[in-house]
UniProtKB/TrEMBL annotation:
<feature type="domain" description="YqgF/RNase H-like">
    <location>
        <begin position="21"/>
        <end position="129"/>
    </location>
</feature>
<dbReference type="InterPro" id="IPR037027">
    <property type="entry name" value="YqgF/RNaseH-like_dom_sf"/>
</dbReference>
<dbReference type="GO" id="GO:0000967">
    <property type="term" value="P:rRNA 5'-end processing"/>
</dbReference>
<feature type="compositionally biased region" description="Basic and acidic residues">
    <location>
        <begin position="10"/>
        <end position="20"/>
    </location>
</feature>
<keyword id="KW-0690">Ribosome biogenesis</keyword>
<dbReference type="GO" id="GO:0004518">
    <property type="term" value="F:nuclease activity"/>
</dbReference>
<protein>
    <recommendedName>
        <fullName>Putative pre-16S rRNA nuclease</fullName>
        <ecNumber>3.1.-.-</ecNumber>
    </recommendedName>
</protein>
<comment type="function">
    <text>Could be a nuclease involved in processing of the 5'-end of pre-16S rRNA.</text>
</comment>
<keyword id="KW-0378">Hydrolase</keyword>
<dbReference type="InterPro" id="IPR005227">
    <property type="entry name" value="YqgF"/>
</dbReference>
<comment type="similarity">
    <text>Belongs to the YqgF HJR family.</text>
</comment>
<keyword id="KW-0540">Nuclease</keyword>
<feature type="region of interest" description="Disordered">
    <location>
        <begin position="1"/>
        <end position="24"/>
    </location>
</feature>
<keyword id="KW-0963">Cytoplasm</keyword>
<dbReference type="InterPro" id="IPR006641">
    <property type="entry name" value="YqgF/RNaseH-like_dom"/>
</dbReference>
<dbReference type="Pfam" id="PF03652">
    <property type="entry name" value="RuvX"/>
</dbReference>
<dbReference type="GO" id="GO:0005829">
    <property type="term" value="C:cytosol"/>
</dbReference>
Length: 181
């Protein structure tokens, strides 16, 4: 993918949108990976599971267990698209975490091909998820897996909402039928 500092986050694009189908959201952490999925209509994101992160990446050609599990989820849900969170600093820059997320996305891209992988700006999703869970009475201690899943839900829901707005604006710009022309 290149230099993390120069790689922009993806945006929903009608020209590359795969259409109706489930999407998978992924929050890549250094210890755990939160996974979420959408309904087939791409309206609502829900938590799926938390996958333990593999510390050593495969060098012998084998697929790391974390990549293999997420690829299995992608197949199981018959996903049409995977949205991986791209963490940025508060100043909008990409640091070490973004580089790790991009490297993970590259490995996942190979494992789930031809399903497209999108990178989505995920500034503060984990912080927001932790705060929302705490406000609803869930304690952070011992609940890291729930927080990781909630962050994945936040990443995916943001993508779904933006996708819906983009497709709606394109739909309004197109004539409804050939009779109107």
């Amino acid at each position: 993918m290149g230099d993390p500092a120069s790689t922009p986050a993806d945006r929903p694009d009608p020209d590359t949108d795969p259409g109706r189908g489930r999407r998978i959201g992924v929050d890549v952490g250094s210890v755990r990976i939160g996974v979420a999925s959408s309904d087939p209509d791409g309206i609502l994101a829900t938590p799926v599971e938390t996958v333990p992160r593999v510390k050593q990446r495969g060098r012998n050609g084998g697929i790391p267990a974390d990549i293999a599990r997420i690829a299995e989820i992608v197949r199981e849900y018959e996903a049409v698209e995977v949205v991986v969170g791209l963490p940025r600093t508060l100043r909008g820059e990409k640091g070490v975490a973004a580089g790790l997320a991009m490297a993970f996305a590259d490995e996942l891209r190979v494992a789930v091909s031809p399903v497209p992988i999108r990178l989505s700006d995920e500034r503060l999703t984990t912080v927001t998820a932790a705060r929302a869970l705490r406000d609803s009475g869930v304690r952070a201690r011992g609940q890291r897996q729930v927080i990781d899943q909630a962050a994945a839900v936040s990443i995916l829901q943001g993508w779904l909402d933006e996708r819906s707005a983009v497709l709606r604006s394109i739909g309004e710009a197109r004539p409804v039928s050939g009779d109107d022309a």
